[in-house]
Amino acid sequence: MRAVLMAGGSGTRLRPLTCDLPKPMVPVLNRPIAEHIINLLKRHQITEVIATLHYLPDAMRDYFQDGSEFGVEMTYSVEDEQPLGTAGCVKNIAELLDNTFLVISGDSITDFDLQAAIAFHKEKRSKATIVLTRVPNPIEFGVVITDREGRIRRFLEKPSTSEIFSDTVNTGTYILEPEILEYLPPNEESDFSKDLFPLLLQKDEPIYGFIAEGYWCDVGHLDAYRDAHYDALQRKVKLDFAYEEKSPGLWIGQNTYIDPTAKVEAPAIIGNNCRIGPGANIEAGTVVGDNVTIGAGADLKRPIIWNGATIGDEAHLAACVIARGTRVDRRAQVLEGAVIGSLSTIGEEAQISTGVRVWPSKRIESGAILNINLIWGSTAQRNLFGQRGVSGLANIDITPEFAVKLGAAYGSTLKPGSQVVVSRDQRSVSRMVSRSIIAGLMSVGVHVQNLEATAIPIARTMTPKLGVVGGIHSRVHPDRPDSILIEFFDSQGINISKAKEKKIEGAYFKEDLRRASIQDIGNMSIPSQAQVLDTYRKTFETQLNVEAIRHSGSKIVIDYVYGVSGAILPELLSKFGCDAVVLNASLRQTAISAEEREALLGQLGQVVEVLKANLGVQVSANGEQFILVDESGLAIRGEQLTALMVNMILTAYPRSTVVVPVHASSAVEQIVRRHDGKVIRTKANPTALMEASQDNPNVVLGGSGEMGFIFPHLHPGFDAMFSIAKLIEMLTIQERSLAQVRTELPRVYHKSYTLRCPWKVKGALMRYLVETHTTEELQLIDGVKVINPRNDNWVLILPDAGEPLVHIFANSDDRDWVDRALKDYRGRVQEFIDREQSEIATV
């Protein structure tokens, strides 16, 4: 007799164990479920097996091959395009089934007497016999009712509580006559329980149920998967064990070492080539796969550990599942019901809470407590690259070893012998990171032009001038004083594209790093600082009306807030005849706090008033960003600074184009209309602004008050130093003061609010917003922008690229409208987040 082994299931409810493994290949007692089924068939003299495959078919074919090593003859039928269902896949191989045959599910553990079922089938002259069993709770299964002769009279697939009329259920094992397959349509999806058997009842064909004695467990979910192990260890089911029983209830594989001080309670299984450390405690019910290392003092309370796992010293595992190749570090805890997918890493002293599932290849940071399923992303550090480069806590996330590997990953995406520019701010931590990056670059045969401590606008200017293929700049993060930001430029000085970022990430995570031979190690050279500054100054001058500045007699106060490298602006301005007073130009190794920055801004306003200066400016972000102070000491920043710069530039260059981020105030459009110009809005990230400023014709300004401003004819990045010089030029030519310009700006109300939003809810939130607004109301540049086509009123819901947050912006000429809109959308978004989280928790 031939058997059809149905092995096409993807095992959705067993995820994450089945993310990279078909359900029948999930191990029970260190053998695939399908192997236990093969052994059952072989014990009942059924040795010709046809396996129907769909999900990850190669896993089973590679393991069983022709079946000869398992004492059977195996052939395979693969459903390539779409699953055909339990009956459809059997119909697909009808030409191979010319006699009575058996169909058996590949995802259950059982020791039924198959020969008794076959004898019953023949005795009753049945066309189809369903092997049945009795279970306490039949809700998850197909319920069947038979008469005294065993003939099936009624059945119901997965009934509700009120529909239960029997505790006798369908086990997914059938003995069938080949002619019943004629009732099924070819190449169409069909199911035995839902389609074929009801049809046979309707046609009054003889269809019987054989109530089998013995053990049966449908390994349909994770609790059942663990129960099958515990039942097998207690010999509630007859299975073939893969190892020798060294003592009653204790099966141990070959070449396994157990330290004499370790304690092992029966029943338990420990596979081949394992190492159990001193003082380890292995309680009854524990299953340990092959090639597993258990550290000293580890406490194992009935976990199921797959092949190749490493369990650290004093780790605590309780009734959990640890999949293939996973590493659980020292003192980590994985609690009851948790499931860790293959090739994951649980950091030292991390805790995986009860019932939490972690998908394959994830990393849980040391000390982390994980209370929710980790499905998307790789860790809390979701990718290497965020909104504007690679960032992380200084000397915790961004360590020397990390920076070396990052440099090597970037260099491995370049041709050997390529040249790159490397620069940094003046802080010691940035020097450490920059030197580590240089070491990584040189190790893969890339040559480095090291600009050392240099303001980032100068580094961007020098990148195309030096003829290199790209650049890297390291600095303390502009918004987070305890973090480092590493940015990558292309050959023009523009932040690299997402595609290039993905290449670097691929090289980093796959460890696909080139290693240069000794003679091909990269070189490092240090261009003359005087030459670098002279090059920048000459580039700077070509884009300015130097004579206008020279005759302005301007006096400005510059506050460097203890943190700008290469403070060359006063030197440049004095060369142009301006009087520049410099504050706080010395360098602090630690970045100042937001409170200190505000205090310094207040002091700057006072100094501007006392000195009767034309303006003051506070420069930050290593020369990229700034805040203005007008002659009366009032600060101009954010949206007001954006509007002021657009106003000044378009007054000087009417009918030109400006580029701003999607969330910038509509004051930009109002100013652009006055000057017959054009506005282009981009995604809210620096790279998008840089690319749009370079790629579109007639662009004279890009950026915003919060990011900085781009002058595309100078270089492609943000430049506070040039912005200030250009501002002095325009104020002189236009014969205006900052206070006068401020009064001309449109009165637009622009507010924002930030909500916490889990990563897994963000996509659903965006879809919900799109579905609940008409196409005419929507702009989808970045996030979801709900607009009024008749005026400048809009609301923008923008997910944060690097944090589990969502930002809501509201904009209008009407203050009350802004307050109402912000309150309305805050409520809508929060209600949706709460509802989604509630549904996720229920699931």
Automatic annotation (TrEMBL):
Q: Which ranges carry the Alpha-D-phosphohexomutase alpha/beta/alpha domain?
A: 383-513, 535-633, 638-748
The molecular function terms in GO held by this entry are:
intramolecular phosphotransferase activity; nucleotidyltransferase activity; structural constituent of carboxysome shell
Q: Does the keyword Nucleotidyltransferase apply?
A: yes
Query: Locate the Nucleotidyl transferase domain: which residues?
Result: 3-234
Q: Does the keyword Cell inner membrane apply?
A: no
Keywords, in A-Z order: Cytoplasm, Initiation factor, Nucleotidyltransferase, Phosphoprotein, Protein biosynthesis, Repeat, Transferase
What GO terms fall under cellular component here? carboxysome
- Where is the protein situated, by its record's location annotation? Cytoplasm, Cytosol
Q: Where is the EIF2B subunit epsilon/gamma LbH domain?
A: 253-352
Primary location:
cytoplasm
List the InterPro entries.
A-D-PHexomutase_a/b/a-I, A-D-PHexomutase_a/b/a-I/II/III, A-D-PHexomutase_a/b/a-II, A-D-PHexomutase_a/b/a-III, A-D-PHexomutase_C_sf, Hexapep_transf_CS, LbH_EIF2B3/5, Mannose-1P_guanyltransferase
Annotated GO biological processes are: carbohydrate metabolic process
Family that this chain belongs to: Belongs to the phosphohexose mutase family.
Q: Which PANTHER family match?
A: SUGAR-1-PHOSPHATE GUANYL TRANSFERASE
Q: Tell me what this protein is called.
A: Mannose-1-phosphate guanylyltransferase
- The organism encoding this protein is Hydrococcus rivularis NIES-593
